[in-house]
Amino acid sequence: TADFWHTQHGRTAGPVKVAVKELLHERLLKPGRMACPGALKSEASWLCLMNEYGIGPRLLHADADRVVMDFVPGKRILSFIADSADAGLCTHVLIKVLRELRRLDALGIHKGELTKPDRHILVKADGSPVLIDFERCKHSSSPQNVLQVCQFLHI
């Protein structure tokens, strides 16, 4: 995370906490990993499209080396569920998640990586779920976003 000076209508609105995805230098990568410059471009273009439908953190800036988006303060979905004493709130959050995933399915977009949704769904303090990490999205005639999460949850 970092602070980013947000400008609105030519006026500086103040610092905004942001999340930054950057291309790592090869020597900083874990063994067996490769730098993938195309992933940043994919993340930016998919996040831009998701933002049109109110999905994901707001894209603030993208270039060849980084993607800057709103920081999402929250917990991973499984931590949120484990820490919550309110079963009704957990059910409400899961319904919201499934509705967003159904919207992606209806748009013909397969998010991918939802076999491990804990890494790709954050829940804010107010119970609003936010999907993150869109670099592996693809158009599909049979997206399975809802199915993948339901299989994970054993519904």
What does this structure look like?
- With 155 residues, this protein is an alpha+beta fold.
- 34% of the residues lie in helices and 26% in strands.
- The protein has four helices and nine strands; from the N terminus they run E-E-H-E-E-E-H-H-E-E-E-E-H.
- The chain has helices at 37-52, 77-83, 87-107, 145-153; strands at residues 2-8, 11-22, 59-62, 66-70, 75-76, 109-110, 121-123, 129-131, 138-139.
- A four-stranded antiparallel sheet has the order 1-2-4-3, covered by helices on one side. Strands 5-7-8 form a three-stranded antiparallel sheet. Strands 6-9 form a two-stranded antiparallel ribbon.
- The longest helix has 21 residues, at 87-107.
Search tags:
155 residues, alpha+beta, three-stranded antiparallel β-sheet, 4 helices, 26% strand, globular
Strand order of the largest sheet: 1-2-4-3
**Poorly predicted residue ranges:** 4-10
Number of strands: 9
Question: For the report, how would you describe the main beta sheet?
Answer: 4 strands, antiparallel
Strand residue percentage: 25-35%
Overview in brief:
By secondary structure, the protein is of the alpha+beta class. The chain contains 4 helices and 9 strands.
Topology:
Blueprint: E1 2-8, E2 11-22, H1 37-52, E3 59-62, E4 66-70, E5 75-76, H2 77-83, H3 87-107, E6 109-110, E7 121-123, E8 129-131, E9 138-139, H4 145-153
